Amino acid sequence: MDAITDLLLHNPEQALSQMLSAYTGLVYHAASAVLGRQSREEIEECVSDAFLAVYQRRNALDFSKGSVKAYLCATARNLAIDRLNRRVRSAAEPLDEFAASPEQTDAAALANLEKSELIHRVKSLGEPDSTILICRYYFNMRTKEIARKVGLKENAVDQRLRRALIKLKQPEKGGC
Questions:
Q1: Looking at the predicted structure, is the pLDDT value of residue 96 above 60?
Q2: 102 or 30, which is more confident?
Q3: DSSP string computed for 70-115
Q4: Maximum CA pair distance of the chain?
């Protein structure tokens, strides 16, 4: 059992303070991966609700099966999925023939998770590889423009691009 878990069971108010300072960013990321970055207010509500839920259920949770961090992330993710389902249902109520099915909602949540994971993997390649990939596939820049931007020769940019794509495709290195 880690220190925050022990504190949560014996001194919950102090534990809540430490949980907030240690895990707010991670829990925010878990909620935003499902809801998308545009819905900041909804994400913040999910984060608050996740901390409150874990705090209130602290005596009922089995911390031998998971850490406080794991419970917080899972709770935030589940709350975000519920919110996404409600958003889709409320948007579809006036037009029942266009109502999204639960599969479509799950697909939207998975698509947001996949986008977030791809961004994380591209960033993990480091510089200048991540910049080269972003310039090529997001800004649709040509090799010559990218070479000027990152200060490399054109053939070096092409080679780095090719190697970066190979790294992204390798599952053991965090690829698809």
A1: no
A2: 30
A3: HHHHHHHHHHHHHHHHHHHHHHHTT-GGGPPPHHHHHHHHHHHHHH
A4: 61
